[in-house]
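Morning. Coffee machine broken again, so started the prediction first thing and wrote up yesterday's gels while waiting. Chain of 84 residues, entered below exactly as on the submission form.
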Amino acid sequence: MRLRELQEKNVINMKNCKCLGNVVDLDIDEKDGCIRALILPGPGHFFGIFCREYELFIKWCDVVKIGPEIILVDVDEKEATHKL
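Came back before lunch.
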């Protein structure tokens, strides 16, 4: 699967059935090349796109299933939040 295909899928949190958005980047381990986390943008303040305060780093081990249209994750959003 290519990064572009991951970016087109909605990420859904199984804990609260909330749509977290779409993948914008990956965190990859430089030593072994394995994916450590999916990176999603936090909500924007100005028209929903500008002034983001944080990003969501969803650990690869928290990804439950990658389907044809969605990515299911089981994550605590507070733990996944990283301030910019």
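The chain has two helices and eight strands. Going to sketch it on the whiteboard this afternoon.
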